[in-house]
């Protein structure tokens, strides 16, 4: 049997403080990120979300549950649905599919709708 505590001691401190590291990461990327976690997305949604993430005010965009809709939507649409903590929930629609999208941003609903309209054109 070996003795406990023979390995290196870890103090939990790194050379760069966590606050400094976080500020360096913010300075590096003024672009938001799109979280890719599912295997299925509405066609064209990821490209649109990456364009939307280019706005510096948007931190994170996360596509979520995809479901079937009753009515048909021939073009890809994004609609701001409800506010969530730290951002808004969007509904993406195309043909008979609907997908929830969560956006983390400090923007109001009107500002986000305006950015979506500019991104869609």
- Span of the ends, CA to CA: 69 Å
Gyration radius, in Å: 20 Å
- State the domain count: 1
| Biggest sheet features | 3 strands, mixed
Mean pLDDT: 83
Tally of helical runs: 3
Task: Report the count of strand segments.
Answer: 3
Overall 3D shape? globular
Helix content: 25-40%
Unreliable runs? 20-27
Beta-strand residue fraction: 35-45%
Strand line-up of the largest beta sheet: 1-2-3
From N to C, what is the helix and strand string? HEHEEH
Tell me what you see in this structure.
This protein has one domain. 26% of the residues lie in helices and 40% in strands.
Please outline what is shown here.
The chain has three helices and three strands; from the N terminus they run αβαββα.
Write the layout of secondary structure elements.
Blueprint: H1 18-28, E1 33-34, H2 45-52, E2 58-84, E3 87-105, H3 109-120
Parallel strand pairs: 1-2
Antiparallel strand pairs: 2-3
């Amino acid at each position: 049997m070996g003795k406990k505590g023979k390995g290196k001691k870890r103090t939990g401190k790194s050379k760069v403080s966590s606050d400094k590291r976080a500020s360096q990461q913010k300075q590096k990327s003024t672009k938001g990120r799109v979280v890719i976690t599912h295997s299925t997305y509405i066609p064209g949604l990821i490209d649109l979300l990456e364009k939307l993430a280019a706005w510096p005010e948007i931190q994170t965009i996360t596509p979520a549950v995809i479901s079937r809709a009753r009515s048909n939507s021939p073009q890809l649409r994004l609609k701001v649905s409800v506010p969530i903590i730290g951002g808004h929930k969007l509904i993406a629609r195309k043909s008979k599919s609907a997908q929830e999208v969560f956006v983390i941003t400090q923007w109001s609903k009107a500002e986000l709708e305006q950015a979506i309209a500019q991104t869609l054109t």
